Amino acid sequence: MKKCLIVGKPNVGKTLFMLNFAQYLHLETVNIQLIYYNGVIENKSYKITQAKELLSSVSPFKTMCLQVLEADIPMGKGKQRIQVIDSSGLTDGIHMNVEMRRAMAQTLSAIRESDIILHLFDISSLFYDSPDHGISKVDYQLAEFGQSKNGYVILANKIDLIPNKRPIVELQKLFPDHYVIPISAKTGLGFSEVSTFVRRRL
Ligand SMILES: Nc1nc2c(ncn2[C@@H]2O[C@H](COP(=O)(O)OP(=O)(O)O)[C@@H](O)[C@H]2O)c(=O)[nH]1
Ligand SMILES: [Mg+2]
Fold it and tell me: Transmembrane region positions (predicted)?
């Protein structure tokens, strides 16, 4: 089964995206497999609404393992089952907390093993005073890695929070070689484009 990994810095909306995208793909209940860096696996089953309350949060670093669910991507008259994988946020430098370091290392190996990489940015938090608009090194590194990968795409998330299109244009300028899809993990805007992107790479 093809693997579709969601990556990005903490708090950009990875977990909310996974759950609302699963709902968009008609899942009402999600069976989530939690895979910890030490190999421990837990299986949980939630209603989507319940999962959103429990798993997506205003406090960063809520997700400390890989969270895997299976969903069907529509393909013409049929569909294809894929794994959608939510990961722990990546940050620059070496994190103080050893558990976090291990969770991030786990995310890095998942990047190598995945067929499709959805790289999320929080478009509402770009600032224009610095030349790189406050985008971190790890985001640039991921984008660079993405150049060698056909299934890599940037998702410019939280567009429901921006007053105009400028942040989207600026982000596209920073990553001219990549396809950027504006989305809102909260409202579902842009989900059909994401679904089309995924379908074309299966
Ligand atoms: N307004 C808005 N808030 C969002 C969006 N996506 C995520 N959030 C909020 O951002 C916070 C972090 O989301 P979460 O999914 O936990 O981020 P993660 O750390 O990347 O998994 C939560 O409070 C979400 O409700 C979005 O598209 N629009
Ligand atoms: Mg999360």
Answer: none
Amino acid 61: pLDDT? 58
Of residues 119, 114, 106, 113, the one with CA closest to residue 63: 106
**Atom 16 of ligand 1 has which residue's CA nearest to it?**
56
Distance CA 2, CA 4 (A): 7
Top-level class of domain 3-200: alpha beta
Using CB distances shorter than 6 Å, the residues near ligand 1 are 8, 10-16, 56-58, 60, 62-63, 89, 157-158, 160-161, 184-186
pLDDT tens-digit map of 34-84? 999 999 999 999 999 999 998 887 776 577 899 999 999 999 899 999 999
- What single-letter amino acid sits at 62? K
Kindly report the protein residue whose alpha carbon is nearest to atom 10 of ligand 1: 13
Q: What is the pLDDT of residue 91?
A: 86
State in Å: Cα 16 to ligand 2 middle: 7
For residue 60, give the ligand 1 atom closest to its CA: 19
- If you average pLDDT over every residue of the chain, what do you get? 92
Average pLDDT over residues 92-121: 90
User: Domain spans of the chain?
Assistant: 3-200
